[in-house]
Write a structure and sequence with these properties.
Pfam families: ADI. One of its GO terms (molecular function) is amino acid binding. Keywords: Hydrolase. Belongs to the DDAH family. The protein has about 260 residues and is α/β, with parallel strands linked by helices. The chain has one domain: L-arginine/glycine Amidinotransferase, Chain A (5-stranded Propeller), CATH 3.75.10.10. It is about 20% helix and about 25% strand. The chain is built from 6 helices and 15 strands. The strands form 5 sheets. The chain has a 3-stranded mixed beta sheet, covered by helices on one side. Strands 3-4-5 form a 3-stranded mixed beta sheet, sandwiched between helices. Strands 6-7-8 form a 3-stranded mixed beta sheet, covered by helices on one side. The structure holds citrulline (CIR). The site of citrulline has 20 residues, from loops. Citrulline binds next to loops.
Length: about 260
């Protein structure tokens, strides 16, 4: 039996830069403060350690406001890493910045050869890797990514992200190997046919970007009805503040690359 898709012993995170206040956003709801993002990031790293993972914390990169969101320029698995081609021009060079770390930590490091793909569009489940098409991940990138995943022995499928939603995982997360947490708009598209689905209460859509790590589910603390729903369903919820990163369209998966390393 293969290991659960949410079992991790290692993550890579990157400290936020002061320039994070200029992070990309679809709609301007005011700049986040650096201090606020830093404190949300510190609590996240601490929660990860408490969940039992070894944290590799990379230094802040002032030239890249969104570089704290390390999930987007790469993908990591026990079998190896893939350097992606982020769909936002200001984020493209984050790949070069994370590349040396991945080459140090993984035996196999593949490069996406063409197209565009962001890690935020990729949901790893036990059976397959779901790749959501979005404004950041195009068909060419998704097809090239499938080929890279095949080299790592991973089955994959290409799915749609609802119109106007930044990333596929903006609207969903894995709760366990049989269950996803999803917004109603994404669930209605039928992509999660094989899964049990828990639907985000109306008005708390940003809570969908939660994160299962080992025994716990990290959930934004601004979303009490989602927390209550998961708690009642028996999940061990760790609420974390995401108010500041939420202003630049980020949630809990964005701030780490997670994998089970068999080097440990
Ligand atoms: C961006 O637009 O790229 C950042 N402001 C937010 C990235 C969030 N990343 C993620 O959901 N994986």
């Amino acid at each position: 039996m293969t290991r659960p898709a949410y079992q991790f012993n290692s993550i890579i995170a990157r400290s936020p830069s002061r320039s994070v206040v200029n992070g990309l956003r679809a709609e301007d709801r005011g700049n986040p403060t650096y201090e606020g993002v830093k404190s949300e990031h510190d609590a996240y790293v601490e929660a990860m350690r408490d969940a039992g993972v070894l944290v590799t914390l990379l230094p802040a990169l002032e030239a890249f406001p969104d570089s704290v969101f390390v999930e987007d320029p790469a993908l990591v698995f026990t079998e190896g890493a893939i350097l992606l081609r982020p769909g936002a021009a200001t984020r493209a060079k984050e790949v070069e910045e994370i590349s040396p770390t991945l080459h140090d930590m993984f035996d196999a490091v593949l490069d996406l050869p063409e197209g565009y793909a962001d890690g935020g569009d990729v949901l790893t489940t036990r059976e397959s890797v779901m790749i959501g098409l979005s404004a950041r991940t195009d068909k060419e990138g998704a097809a090239a990514l499938r080929a890279c995943l095949e080299k790592l022995g991973r089955a994959s499928e290409i799915v749609a992200t609802p119109e106007g939603v930044l990333h596929f995982k903006t609207d969903c997360s894995l709760l366990d190997d049989e269950t996803v947490l999803s917004t109603d708009r994404l669930a209605r598209s039928g992509v999660f046919g094989k899964f049990r689905q828990m639907i985000i209460p109306e008005g708390e859509e940003p809570a969908a970007n939660a994160l299962r790590v080992n025994d716990v589910v990290l959930v934004g603390s601004d979303f009490p009805r989602t927390i209550e729903m998961l708690d009642k369903a028996g999940y061990m919820v760790v609420p974390l503040k995401t108010t500041e990163i939420g202003k630049i369209d980020a949630g809990l998966s964005c701030m780490s690359l997670r994998w089970f390393s068999d080097r440990m």
